[in-house]
Amino acid sequence: MTATQHYATEVEFGDCDPAGIALFRYGLPRDFRWMDAASRHYFRAYGLPEWRELTPQNGIIGTPLVDTQARFLRPAHYGQRIEVRSRISKWRQKSFVMTHSVHRGDELLLECTEVRVFATRHPEDPERIKAVALPEALRTLPPA
User: Fold this and answer.
1) All residues at 6 or more sequence positions from 2 whose CB lies less than 8 Å from its CB, including other chains
2) In sequence order, what E strands does 11-143 have?
């Protein structure tokens, strides 16, 4: 297992419904926005460049989400400080499994597993993406 990285943020007014509960905006739970940010911060913690910096080097445009499973235990509310704890639980040839847990202090709010791929633009159709092998720079991360 790789090391766990912590990403802290505050629940903003715009994250919440009229009751002040962080729930859905634009059809997705806000938690997924926080976990997406935690994923990016995870790689930055290991000194990897932003995805836009990798594009000129190897064409990688990011790590889109291709599958996910979440268990929502408790809601977060406006003004609360939350922490997303993230780690890579499995490296695959063209994808990886990332697990997140969202906490408010010691209280667990959410558990989530994501499968992401390293993606480039599809060579025959720039509107599509194509999963590619794990970038060489990531081979230096702690092993799964």
Assistant:
1) 87, 88, 89, 141, 142, 143, 144
2) 21-22, 24-25, 28-29, 65-72, 76-77, 81-91, 95-104, 107-121, 129-132
Helix (H) or strand (E) holding 31: helix 30-45
Q: State pLDDT tens for residues 7-52.
A: 788 877 777 666 666 765 544 567 778 888 888 888 888 777 777 7
Catalytic residue chosen out of the listed positions 15, 17, 67, 125: 17
Identify the DSSP state of 94: S
CATH number of 5-140: 3.10.129.10
Domain-wise residue ranges, the chain: 5-140
**From the CB of residue 96, how many other CB atoms can be counted at a distance below 10 Å?**
22
Told to judge if 17 belongs to the known catalytic residues of this protein, a careful annotator would answer: yes
pTM, to two decimals: 0.78
- Which one, of 135, 78, 66, 72, lies nearest residue 100 by Cα? 72
Q: Are 70 and 112 in contact (CB under 8 A)?
A: yes
